[in-house]
Specification:
By secondary structure, the chain is an alpha/beta fold. The chain has 18 helices and six strands. The chain has three domains: 208 residues, no CATH class; 49 residues; 132 residues, 2-Layer Sandwich (Heat Shock Protein 90), CATH 3.30.565.10.
Length: 462
């Protein structure tokens, strides 16, 4: 039993519209800059007290630590100061993320996986990231932070004060102003300009305020990007470490892919040996017996031939069932959704298909084949182990901005008994290994008593 829901989600439509607007040449880039101004000001304006607090704490800690180093207590104060620097640096990364900047990958604080009190102390002292965080808090961030805070504060105050000068200027005492903007503009650019001084000042300050407010998005973005560039160089993971992690991840994916392929081949070999091969051997024996008895006992020969025909029919069905693990004809002819619906039709438990793919979505054939295999394995696990009487299978194409990637999500939820975990040699372990080999991930939520939700995420590249 299958129920299919084709849903063109408003979220996907909105995302596509935003993407189109970004790509169009007449898209309001200035408007998009203004939308981030509150977040950037929320980062820039509190910068001064934060960098001062960090600078005071770190200078006191490092000075006292090195001053008491001869008493051996200083080493613990230095360690505490390094951890404080790490805390302030992490706060800086969190604040930048809140300002709308892309996430900076944080360092691996324990790359050698050391254990033990003294080993951790020495690994902290020898880790260059701690000292970079310390230099960032002691010298760099205080210098840059004071300047960026002063500029951002001055810019917004000047802008707001300028555009509202006409409102509060009537309460400013009159008299000898000394230097005034109106006199300078008149003498420099408009010698013949005759206008009431207060009205002229209000007009000039209003124009100046508008200019400052109009350029505010560029100023806040530029100042935030200065902090982001410094943080990326001093507070982020070293590029060498990132490359090593990527190499390790690719190596693990390749190993997982080879292992998953080997497991699939061994299972296919076992299934053929235990199923169709045994039936074909039995059919060969029946046909040989029928051939010997054809002249002496035609009735018995016909019985053996009928049994051989039944064995051939069952062997053909088993071969067809095994071929579905590769690429069933319906998948090649009609696509992933139709193939998944076919899977649901054969399920012993009612399955509702929720199709969140946009109409006309074309996925790479290899992605469709693996998604079909994943869905088949997940439904089989539910039927074998969950005790459920209702299943929902959802297909969704999702875009992740960071890192920029497109993912195909295959999600199976059931109302069974729960308790699903990955065990070596079992179906979910093989599924996780296969996904890892594809660069994907498997998420399992299955508390005792249910419900269970298993989500497979496959990276899609066009």
């Amino acid at each position: 039993m299958t129920t299919t829901e084709n849903i063109a989600t408003s979220e996907s439509a909105t995302l596509d519209a935003m993407t189109t607007a970004s790509a169009s040449p007449n898209g309001s880039s200035y408007g998009r800059l203004w939308r981030t101004v509150p977040r950037e000001l929320g980062y820039l304006l509190p910068t001064l007290p934060i960098v001062i607090a960090a600078n005071v704490v770190l200078w006191v800690g490092i000075s006292v630590g090195f001053g008491m180093l001869v008493t051996f207590v200083g080493i613990f104060i230095i360690i505490a100061t390094l951890y404080a620097a790490r805390g302030f640096g992490t706060l800086e990364l969190v604040r930048l993320r809140g300002a709308g900047r892309p996430e900076i990958r944080r360092p691996n604080w324990n790359p050698r996986k050391v254990t033990g009190f003294w080993a951790n102390i020495f690994s902290t002292v020898l880790n260059p990231h701690y000292w970079l965080y310390l230099v960032h808090g002691l010298v760099v961030n205080i210098a840059v932070g004071v300047v960026t805070w002063a500029i951002s504060f001055t810019w917004i105050v000047t802008g707001l004060a300028g555009v509202t000068y006409w409102l509060y200027s009537r309460w400013i005492p009159t008299g000898d102003y000394g230097w005034r903007l109106y006199d300078w503009v008149k003498a420099s650019f408009f010698p013949g300009w005759n206008m009431d001084a207060q009205s002229a000042d209000s007009l000039l300050y209003f124009v100046l305020g508008v200019i400052f407010l109009a350029t505010l998005p560029f100023v806040t973005r530029g100042l935030t990007m200065i902090h982001y560039g410094i943080a990326r160089g001093m507070l982020g993971r070293f590029r060498v470490a990132e490359l090593q992690g990527e190499v390790a991840g690719l190596s693990a994916s390749r190993t997982a892919a080879v292992s998953a392929e080997g497991t699939s081949l061994r299972r296919l070999e076992r299934d053929i040996h235990d199923g169709p091969q045994q039936r074909l051997v039995r059919m060969q024996m029946d046909l040989a017996s029928a051939d010997r008895q054809l002249a002496d006992d035609p009735a018995q020969a016909r019985t053996l031939i009928a049994e051989a025909m039944e064995q051939s029919r069952q062997a053909l069905e088993e071969l067809r069932a095994l071929s579905r693990g590769f690429a069933p004809p319906i998948l090649l002819d009609r696509g992933l959704v139709a193939a998944v619906e076919s899977l649901a039709d054969r399920s012993t438990i009612p399955v509702r298909i929720v199709n969140l793919l946009q109409p006309g979505t074309n996925l790479p054939q290899e992605i469709e084949r693996n998604a079909y295999f994943v869905a088949s394995e997940m439904l089989t696990n539910v039927a074998k182990h969950s005790g459920a009487d209702d299943i929902e299978l959802r297909l969704e194409l999702r875009r992740a901005p960071e890192p920029d990637a497109t993912w195909l999500d295959v999600v199976v939820a059931d109302n069974g008994s729960g308790g699903a975990v990955v065990r070596s040699g079992h179906g979910l372990a093989g599924l996780e290994e296969r996904l890892r080999g594809l660069g994907g991930t498997l998420e399992i939520s299955s508390p005792a008593g249910g419900p269970t939700m298993i989500s497979a995420h496959l990276p899609v590249s066009y």
